[in-house]
Amino acid sequence: MMTKEVFKKKPSKVFWGFIIIVLICINMYSLYIVQNKNKMVEEVVKMKNNTADTLNSVKNSVRENKFFEINENGKTINDELILNFGSDDRTNIKFESLLVNKYTYVIDLGHLDCFSCMQGIKNILNPVTSFINNYGSKVVLLAEYRTQEDIEVLRRLTNLEVEIYSKNGNKLGLEIEDNITPYILILDKNLMVNNVFVPIEKFPELTSLYFTYTGNIYD
Fold first, then answer.
1. Could you tell me the keywords of this UniProt record (predicted)?
2. pTM to 2 decimals?
């Protein structure tokens, strides 16, 4: 009896060609995934580094500001300070005459001599502009500016509706004036300084918290 040999059919060239193409595609896809994963990792690292840098920057700012915030509290300001306001013929007014309430917020905006300065002030004041406008005489805004046009530019940026008084080179008599602006403080009727606060542009929420906190105390 004759036995039959069973011959296994060899895979065709087409089959091997297909396998090779599949392997190449898998390798290319794997490379694509790895490269994109690396990019994602790099972005995450960058984000973490940026966040850490930002937090470190803020911490350093808070540390530097804290000296003035603590050092100025309890001081009495210059009771002879003269301010002026208005457009062409600026009107003089004694600063003390503006303190008609038991407690008054004083916000010193510093120099308004460049657009970037005003943009920084806008970022700081945006969360509390409505508070300032609604509080009226309870808030006194100070600045150093050249013309009324500077004030109008700031008003357009910030939507401030209250008067902004020029210090005209005069001083409250505080060390912080020559070091950091803007800053905020609360004055009582005896011209004593309370709750000095230095806003941080990157964290305007802190300014909102300051007004919320102090508003509950001094309202």
1. Membrane, Transmembrane, Transmembrane helix
2. 0.70
